[in-house]
Amino acid sequence: MPEPLVSIRGLDVRFNGIPALRGIDLDVGRGEAVGLVGESGCGKSVTWLAALGLLPHTAKVAGSVRLEGRELLGAASGALDNVRGGRVAMIFQDPASALNPVQRVGRQVGEALKLHRGMDDKAARAETRRLFELVGIPDPARRIDVYPHEMSGGQNQRVMIAMALAGQPELLVADEPTTALDATIQAQILDLLRRLQRETGMALVLISHDLGVVADMCSRVCVMYAGRIVEQAPSEQIFARPAHPYTQGLLGALPDMVGPRRRLSAIPGGVPEPWNLPSGCAFSPRCHLATPACSLQPPLLRVEDGHEAACIHLHAREGVFA
Amino acid sequence: MSLLSVRDAAQVYTTRRGLFGGRVDVRAVDGVSFDVAPGQTLGIVGESGCGKSTTGRLALGLERPSEGSVTFDGQAMPAPGTADWRAMRAKMQLVFQDPLGAMDRRLTIARQIEEPLEIHGIGDKAERAARVAALLVDVGLRADHGLRHPHELSGGQRQRAVLARALATNPSLLVCDEPVSALDVSIQAQVVNMLTDLQAARGIAMVFISHDLKVVRQVSHQVAVMYLGRIVEQGDPDALFADPAHPYTRALVSAIPVPGPRRLERIVLAGDPPNPADRPTGCAFHPRCPVAIARCRTDTPALRHSPCGRMVACHLVDTETRIAA
User: Fold this and answer.
1) pTM, whole model, 2 decimals?
2) How confident is the model at residue B238 (pLDDT cuts 50, 70, 90)?
3) B158 close to B150: Cβ distance less than 8 angstroms
4) pLDDT band for position A1 (50/70/90)?
5) Does one domain contain both A201 and A273?
6) Which among A72, A129, A155, B202 has the fewest CB atoms less than 10 Å away?
7) Which domain holds residue A186?
């Protein structure tokens, strides 16, 4: 297997001693699209904020994050500035608050071009225009000079994507990029991300609570729960044959779009508080399969090629999926 | 016999265009009609600015329609703020998306559930306490949850508490405006199940407003799809989502990312939803419509019965040019 673009090993994050991430191992290959799904507080965003050194100083980060073999954790901020917005770019859920409201959008994109690609004013303006065209902003020559509040949420997210592309990233981390957008606009932005990924060959990490969005966009999916990856597999496998009871629960809780309506199989209870995690498998208090053996932390076990799940009952139930 | 009946309701707001611009009329809701029977749910779907929340406010009598009428239980809705209106309001309640914003942070949950009983003068102190305890059980909360403050509960528990408060006066109509949109998937399923159980047990009529088509299909007996203040398609949820007739509904349904293989070919609409203050002529959807013809620019299509058994507002439905799949 070729060396992955990003390799995360044993990533641990604590805020004031309270665990947010508990040993994340994750590889992202060149040009690969990986989805991270899970509910609020499961650590899907923190994983990437920690990897890029974007967490506040109160956060204790341990483990290793390598970008093509070079360690990022604890690297000098000068070295990180080259990575952030350059080799790895990130976009967020709420574009309106990520953009500077009192600066014209073109200038904000131009700033990234000057910083990461050493362009002068004129070159940056021309390149900004090209990027606006690339991300499908109508009338780019005029839109360069407007302020964020003069554009819709979907257009602002396109500006954010243009800004992310300014540094010609090898990896784009998109954190809930369409959650704040309407359904038809979400479809436009997802389409754009898919096209850009194909055209530029960059890798994509898509963080989302929406299993549908991830299934649509990513070839591989990691499901997170309470600061750990509990299952990872190629998209088709995880949705056709989910192995971890939590993944099965998430899929069962989604209403169907076709076929007869059935009562939703809700997962009982709620996500545990991070300061009050059960010992062993954090999902066990909500799990219908839980036994006393679940009080030991299960490692990721092989389900089939490229498909792993952290559940000790996996092998006992193997017959179900054979 | 319908409980809530809305006929040709329109709501017009006047707003200024820019700082010095002239006044413009914004028709947030335009000619909307529907009925909701006891024990039934009408789902309203659409994107931001389509008028779905305003429709909910009209249904509750929180606003009086500029045109058309709203009748509840056979009576015309009294003017907001009057004694008649307040008496009628006990029978209809609203549940919002953000439970924390809908609650008083300084009061305990039990206190907040009791408040509507006090306002409407229902029962004495002991009866009210018993009723609060019963309501907590009905929405799946424990007695000790009643003693806590809103910030001490999780999002799902807060939404249950809001629902308990809404149910306190034993309403016959519940308007839910994005009630589960802020909740995580696993909690969303719990609340959706609870809503359908409560409806079955109490025969409550519901108007369920959401942008989430999957959840709307799950809870609704009837669905109305809104675009820029108008209903563009209305009918049975299973049929409507399986074989949408209006080009906008088709795009909306095809845009939902679902795990597993895709059923409809994805239709990605160009452009943004238009500004209600700048409504396109003719069919408001025509600038984004992949199948629009010249007539769509000039004539506004009426919502009428179509051969598919639903109400559709499109010139192209039920003609030869019916948009082929």
Assistant:
1) 0.89
2) very high
3) yes
4) low
5) no
6) B202
7) 6-218
Task: Tell me: do A65 and A214 sit in the same domain.
Answer: yes
Contacts of B253 in chain A (CB under 8 A): 257
DSSP one-letter string for A179-211: TTS-HHHHHHHHHHHHHHHHHH--EEEEEES-H
Q: How far apart are CA A308 and CA B4, in angstroms?
A: 52
Q: Are residues A204 and A317 in the same domain?
A: no
Q: Is the pLDDT of residue B19 over 70?
A: no
Task: Say whether A155 and B215 touch across the interface (CB within 8 A).
Answer: no
Residue A139: inside a domain: yes
Q: Are residues A10 and A116 in the same domain?
A: yes
Contacts of B257 in chain A (CB under 8 A): 186, 190, 210, 212-213, 215-217
pLDDT band at A314, cuts 50/70/90? confident
Q: What is the mean pLDDT of residues B289-305?
A: 93
Contact between B256 and A258 using a beta-carbon 8 Å cutoff? no
Closest CB from A184, A190, A210 relative to B269: A184
Structure tokens at B286: 């025509």
**Chain B residue nearest residue A240, CA to CA:** B260
Residue A302 lies in a domain: yes
Q: Look at B259 and A212 and tell me if their CB atoms are within 8 Å.
A: yes
Question: What is the total count of domains within chain A?
Answer: 2
Residue A64 counted as domain residue: yes
**Based on the domain organization, do A200 and A308 belong to the same domain?**
no
pLDDT class for B321, splitting at 50, 70, 90?
very low
**Mean pLDDT, range B283-311, rounded to an integer:** 92
Q: Which of A219, A257, A261 to mutate to test the interface with B (most CBs of B within 10 A)?
A: A257
CA distance A267 to chain B (A): 6
What does the pLDDT look like over A202-260, one tens digit per residue? 999 999 998 889 988 999 999 999 999 999 999 999 999 999 999 999 999 999 888 88
Domain termination site, one of A161, A183, A218: A218
CATH code of the domain in which A24 resides? 3.40.50.300
Q: Worst-scoring range by mean pLDDT, A33-37, A75-79, B71-75, B194-198?
A: A75-79
For the domain spanning B4-91+171-312, the CATH number is 3.40.50.300
Complex ipTM: 0.84
Query: A276 lies in a domain?
Result: yes
Break chain B into its structural domains and give their ranges. 4-91+171-312, 97-170
Give me the residue from A155, A190, A254 closest to B185, CB to CB.
A254
User: Is A184 within 8 Å of B255 when comparing Cβ atoms?
Assistant: yes
Q: Which of B210, B232, B258, B264 to mutate to test the interface with A (most CBs of A within 10 A)?
A: B258
Same domain, A197 and A265: no
Interface residue ranges in chain A relative to chain B, Cβ cutoff 8 Å: 39-40, 152, 154-155, 182-188, 190-191, 209-213, 215-217, 239-240, 249-258, 261, 263-268, 270-271
A154 and A265 together in one domain: no
* In a shared domain, residues A47 and A188: yes
Measured between beta carbons, the chain A residues lying within 8 angstroms of B284 are none
Residue ranges of B 209-268 with Cβ closer than 8 A to chain A: 211, 213-215, 217-218, 238, 241-242, 251-260, 263, 266, 268
What band does B22 get if pLDDT is binned at 50, 70 and 90? Answer: confident
